[in-house]
Specification:
9% strand, 3-stranded antiparallel beta sheet, two-stranded antiparallel sheet, mainly alpha
Length: 169
């Protein structure tokens, strides 16, 4: 009769301690470093767009101004180049409303940022709480810069401390 074996084989104890758990990653070091670079780029881009979005919201709701490019000044009929104009009543006719463009661009960048978060999170096999913290970086001003710096250092430290954990192939 075949003797059943446990799914996790006991590891021989060494100088690191009997309770030390072996660290495993979801990919190779190259895959993790690639995900980290993608996350870093998206964190900075999304953070910058979020700050621009906050400035746009202050201009819109604090001062009643939209950012426009092109069009015609509604009051004077003169061509309108680039700048702020009244939201209500409309200050510019036929121009591109850059305030709305900032909203749309940040929204789509946040979706790509979440994809980069998910990729890094799955490769590092972190707990779900870290995924929530990563995701908050795209909606709380300045948090993406802080979180990126913290997690970048953490990934580097984990990869350096566990070089054999990432060799999967």
């Amino acid at each position: 009769m075949i003797e059943p074996k446990p799914a996790i084989q006991p590891q021989p104890s060494n100088s690191a301690g009997a309770g030390a758990k072996k660290r495993r990653f979801g990919g190779t070091q190259a895959q993790i470093r690639s995900a980290l670079k993608f996350y870093k780029v998206m964190a900075y881009l999304t953070g910058a767009m979020l700050l621009l979005l906050c400035a746009e919201l202050v201009a819109r709701y604090g001062f009643g101004q939209y950012l426009f490019a092109g069009g015609t000044n509604a009051l004077s009929g003169q061509p309108f180049g680039f700048g702020f104009a009244d939201a209500e009543p409309k200050g510019v006719l036929g121009g591109i409303n850059l305030s709305v463009a900032v909203l749309i661009i940040h929204g789509w960048m946040y979706v790509v940022y979440l994809i980069s978060d998910f990729r890094l999170w799955t490769l590092m096999r972190w707990p779900f709480v870290k995924m929530i913290l990563l995701a908050l970086g795209g909606v709380v001003p300045f948090l993406s810069f802080i979180v990126e710096k913290k997690f970048h250092a953490e990934v580097d430290a984990e990869l350096a401390a566990n070089p054999e954990a990432a060799s999967r192939y």
